[in-house]
Design goal:
CATH superfamily: Alpha/Beta hydrolase fold, catalytic domain
Structural class: alpha/beta
Largest sheet: 7 strands, mixed
CATH class: Alpha Beta
Strand content: 15-25%
Number of helices: 6
CATH architecture: 3-Layer(aba) Sandwich
CATH topology: Rossmann fold
Oligomer: single chain
Number of domains: 1
Helix content: 25-40%
Distance between the termini: 52 Å
Radius of gyration: 17 Å
Shape: globular
């Protein structure tokens, strides 16, 4: 049995929130967690909205039924199957969304933040380091730094990024050893990440969102 692969064009969806008539000064890409969809995720992040800030919520390329093949639908950024291909497809997808948004003559406009919750935090970190888009800030909420992300190979970009990690004290879904190891890897590169904790679990906390905004 021989494995073969082929690249195919497909349709992805993303949602944008911006104030009409207000010039864009910065863009935040908001990457949802496992099993979520982009539209409700964007709605849950209303506290991040500000005049001059465009919020962009891409949806993971793999949608599926959450329960027994019917009912509610969620999306995922990747699984362990053909993992490298899915990571590469996600990077290309996010780069294309960014390039379509900035438009001609707007390459240097504003700052770009990648915000990821749960599984979206890993996708955001990979995009910030490996993608073509000029991400200036990464906010990873409820997700450790991916252990396979080669920081040394992209040292200049890693050091130029502003790194922020958010963790709920009651979050039982995150691997805390992996979280600590990721922070240690950044510090070994000369990067001092910003850390925030809150009293909740694996969830978004409106007060802290407002502070980050």
């Amino acid at each position: 049995m021989e494995l073969r692969t082929i690249e195919v064009p497909r349709t992805a969806r993303y949602y944008v929130r911006a104030e009409p008539g207000t010039p864009t000064r910065e863009v935040w890409f908001l990457l949802h967690g496992y099993g979520q969809l982009a539209a409700p995720f964007l709605g849950s992040l209303a506290a991040l909205a500000r005049p001059g800030r465009t919020l962009v919520a891409p949806e993971g390329l793999s949608r599926y039924y959450l329960k027994r093949g019917t009912g509610a639908v969620g999306a995922s950024w990747m699984t362990r199957e053909e993992r490298a291909d899915e990571i590469r497809d996600t990077l290309r997808y996010l780069d294309l969304v960014w390039e379509g948004l900035r438009g001609p003559g707007r390459a240097s406009q504003g700052g770009l933040t990648a915000f990821g919750f749960s599984q979206g935090g890993a996708a955001a970190a990979r995009w910030a380091v490996l993608g073509r888009a000029p991400v200036a800030q990464l906010v990873s909420w409820g997700c450790p730094l991916p252990s396979d992300l080669d920081l040394a190979a992209h040292a200049e970009r890693v050091r130029a990024l502003r790194w922020t990690f958010v963790l709920g004290r009651s979050d039982e879904s995150i691997d805390r050893a992996a979280h600590a190891a990721g922070l240690a890897r950044l510090r070994a590169m000369g990067v001092e990440p910003t850390e925030h904790e809150f009293s909740g679990a694996h969830e978004l906390e409106p007060g802290l969102l407002g502070a980050l905004a």
